Amino acid sequence: MENPKNNNNSSLKAVIAVLAVLLIGSLVYIFKLSSDTDVVKTELTSTLTEKESVMKDLQELKATYDAAIAENTSMSDELIQERDKVVALMSDLNKSKGDVSKYRNQVQGMQAKMKTLVAENDELKKQNGVLTVQRDSTIVVLGESKKYNEVLVGQNEELAKTVEKGSKLSILNTKTAAYKLRSSGKQVETDKASRADVLKISFTIAENQIAKSGDKTYYVQVIDAKSNVLGDKKTESFGDNTLTYSFKTTVQYENKSVNVVQDLPGKDFAKGTYFINVFDNDELVSKTSFSLR
Questions:
Q1: Could you tell me the CATH superfamily of domain 171-292?
Q2: Could you tell me which of 141, 174, 199, 258 has the fewest CB atoms within 10 Å of its CB?
Q3: What is the spatial distance between Cα 10 and Cα 17, in angstroms, rounded to a whole number?
Q4: What are the boundaries of each domain within the chain?
Q5: How would you list the strands of the sheet with 272-280, edge to edge?
Q6: Residue 208's closest CA among 255, 259, 143?
Q7: Average pLDDT, whole number, for the chain?
Q8: Could you tell me the CA-to-CA distances from 292 to 61, 181, 194, 196, 267 in Å, in that order?
């Protein structure tokens, strides 16, 4: 017959063995669970860190593009397009929950593109700087040339005025005297109105080497003591001006002095002072007077 005490000991050992196995199993499960949790935590932390790193790179890319766009070069439109791509990728990254490695690849491509565009933009700025300096230099040169041309124009205008003034003919020694005409044809000078038959008007066209040669016409106006125009009493128009003259004379001028003498016949000459005016067209160029008693 078996001993009951021995049976109880055997059962107790069996229970302890089972409990020990369960305890070991529990410890193994807890350790594995803890390990898995640490792995997940590590992966999550790594993912968050990588996401922050990619976001930082994107922010730096955007800042670089913003600075380049602010310089307002001819590449601004292209830079704006690339900046907008960066902003769109930042928005996608903010919404992502998993692996961000694909974003890292895109960022690397964008960084390479940014370096190329910024280098081109910098080169363009240098070229613009050179062009600006050249333009400013050209403006200065043109300004100096304009001033010089203005001086030349002024000098030419003054020279033209001087030449025009110098080319005008001078009328000298304008004289008038009354003469009595004898039957023999001889003319005898007189200062008596009652004896006068003709007035002799003379003047000299002075020598002028820069004047234009050719036919020169002068209009002579003789006004008696009663304010009457003697002679032909013809009227000539010069624009808005008119001139009543006693006679006109045309001479061939060859830049040498020319003496002009013209007789003005008449009768019943009035006593008093006579005025003689010589006109080049409507411009008075000489005048004199004489008296008859």
A1: Immunoglobulins (2.60.40.10)
A2: 141
A3: 11
A4: 4-120, 171-292
A5: 247-253, 214-223, 272-280, 283-292
A6: 255
A7: 85
A8: 111, 16, 9, 9, 13
